[in-house]
Amino acid sequence: MKESERQVQQITPKSEDFSRWYVEIVQKAELADYTPMKGMMVIRPHGYAVWENIQRSLDSRIKAAGHVNAYFPLFIPESFLKKEAEHVEGFSPEVAWVTVGGKEELEERLAVRPTSEAIIGHMYAKWIKSWRDLPVLVNQWANIVRWEKVTRPFLRTTEFLWQEGHTCHETAEEGEAETLKILALYRDFCETELAVPVLTGRKSLSEKFAGASMTYAIEALMSDGKALQMGTSHNLGQHFSKAFDIKFEDRSQTLQYVWQTSWGMTTRTIGALIMVHGDDSGLRFPPRIAPVQVVAVPISIGNWKETVLPVAQAAVEALRGLGLRAELDAREEATPGWKFSEHEMRGVPLRLEIGPRDVKAGQAVLVRRDTGVKETVPLAALPARVPALLDEIQAGLMAQARAFLEANIRDASDYATFKDILENKRGFVRAPWCGDAACEARIKSETMATIRVIPLEDKDAATDQPCVACGAKGQALAYFARSY
Amino acid sequence: MKESERQVQQITPKSEDFSRWYVEIVQKAELADYTPMKGMMVIRPHGYAVWENIQRSLDSRIKAAGHVNAYFPLFIPESFLKKEAEHVEGFSPEVAWVTVGGKEELEERLAVRPTSEAIIGHMYAKWIKSWRDLPVLVNQWANIVRWEKVTRPFLRTTEFLWQEGHTCHETAEEGEAETLKILALYRDFCETELAVPVLTGRKSLSEKFAGASMTYAIEALMSDGKALQMGTSHNLGQHFSKAFDIKFEDRSQTLQYVWQTSWGMTTRTIGALIMVHGDDSGLRFPPRIAPVQVVAVPISIGNWKETVLPVAQAAVEALRGLGLRAELDAREEATPGWKFSEHEMRGVPLRLEIGPRDVKAGQAVLVRRDTGVKETVPLAALPARVPALLDEIQAGLMAQARAFLEANIRDASDYATFKDILENKRGFVRAPWCGDAACEARIKSETMATIRVIPLEDKDAATDQPCVACGAKGQALAYFARSY
Questions:
Q1: Under 8 Å CB-to-CB from A85, ≥6 apart: which residues?
Q2: ipTM score above 0.85
Q3: Model pTM?
């Protein structure tokens, strides 16, 4: 390939300016684009195809865990948002308000949903009467609006897409079990489908969802050393059921408030795919989530349309017959070299090259996007080799990401080390913390790092060491990081 | 079954009060519910499962026709809506406006999308440069808000869900071909999946989409004799490309405006399923779209849990293994009779009954929801018989709906007959029309009927008869009806 054909030359190297690299990839790979409205993006077909794969896979997991989908209104009356005190305080600075409908000023402002606990809580109060109606296990796929000041495509946008689960249970124990079950489901989804390893645990109280008793999260490490929250699962306790009067007659005919959970994952996961797996040549999508898993590029020399093209077509058809997302790039206006770069940039995990000599030899060349390694495979062996290679690529990306994560979890027992790691190495710092919110706030203001998770395992959580920042008695080992 | 167990007694008979019957079914079958906000509904899990089936099936057809999905912003700046004169005039009375974001008044009001031509047009102008970029074949699944005065669940709601296709083409002919291709796709979808036969054709100019050159529609007949528009496909010509400056360099290096189409189907199709197929006992879902296709009800007598239940479970598992949506209703707190009524009301196409005697005889009873006909089938024959019966039910519902439609298309050559049919028989009236909008408006004000479609076939469209209302020279045979 001529260097002049490399469209990736147009992308700023990752090591030079990570933020610029990210924004350029998003646009050049046509994942998303800016609109004239601040913070609102268009998810273009190549990006939306990733979201469709995420949706299909996550939705089937959510359903297999017993949940059903529903759809609640986009708007929430202002008075509803105000019913749960912490909730309104947390969300009201971020709300977009509808004040005019048709030609008329509305009597009450309507919030464009920043999350749906309030409207769903109102409906649950109407529907739930008895313990026989429980558990209620409902999920919704929807768009969400939060008026953000600083935005970045996929990572933080005024409008984003997500799923939000909202469940009701008879007992506190069942609510907690559901919260942790979803946390595990999210972790499995991220690691299996996205090849993104995560840390799991609870948030500190200052980082929890506005209105929750406890927030649990999964956190991933981006390749610039900053953390990204990939999903949250909230134990809502009885905060919303008391605010919205969601009561049921229990097994002993006593009226009780239900115990609730809510949990969500968003289009931000696409940002993680870019930042965990991408390299200087562009995206590297894990095969299980890639819009196109294999692209066949015929080498356009001589009478290739009569000789090479039919063979490439047949190979693609055979792979599609196996259920693979395979495509043929037969464009005449682009050279093979240009196509190679373009599909590399767009993150296609595997490239299949076929030229005239390959046709004569009854073979094709497979090129891995993750490692660049090439192998020559007999045409007849493609239907066996391609799926196996895709599995290897999925595993390879996961292994690489896990190694990076593990290499970037560092322990600190004193504040100087703690600050040095955050300033010069980034990644996660595991350190004892006193449990005090004021100390946590001081760490944040001095290091820009927050507690990402406090692991659930007793062995990690218990600590006898003094707090890394204030020296008071440590209460937990926490993972700190700078984050998106 | 004891009559006292019939939960359907709570539903107003269809023949007595169709509107009340409709609203009661929607709520009692838990398809949807009202919210405190006028015209905004919740789509409950049973209703949303229908929408998911519609989505899956319609989406695969749209993709097979070469389209890809994307996602554009929920908000549209007011200035964008105003760029196409007819468009803003048509939609501005129905727009919900966001005027406050976070704590601040916005400089420019943002429309909550009533349709997305304006924001998509703006982006297309940015993306499209050359004929090589065409055609652009993009679809979006989204929520839409229109501030309606009179609302009814599914049929007309302030917020609804839909898909909207937005395509760009090199020539007027390609735009027209796309418009008609989608019209045919919609027709095939409605008739094959929903078992709802439709009339197809163009709208009169007074009924076309605000901003289109021509609107085509599919129209179905509800069982109360009123028409329902099931989907529309618009040839936008160059109206929006001129307003939004969407130009491309054509094959002879000349700048041209693109030719566009847009088209949509909505959650209103669920309303059609209710009104076309429902009866006094409740819903009758066509199997291809039914959330549950077959429900097994064990007859709970004696030691049924040891004898009947395992057999019912095995039967359900076997049906699921075939890919059928089969469920077991093993609830202990409900009697078989109560369950029969409930599943009838919820529209399950096929019921499988198994009692102790059936177990001994190695058989089960299948009861069709559409006809009530029962048949006894050996357990071993269920995996063959159930799918075949579901196909028969799908075909039976379609045949019944088609017979009703055909029996309710009547010709009128004079205005007295025309009015008599609309007043006393309802349904469609096929009549010659002069083509004059004033005459059309007079017919509407005098009979409450509008032109639903003007068929495309020349043989139907051409007419030598005088206009049914004014007696002027007829220009087309049109289908008139009262409608939702």
A1: none
A2: yes
A3: 0.96
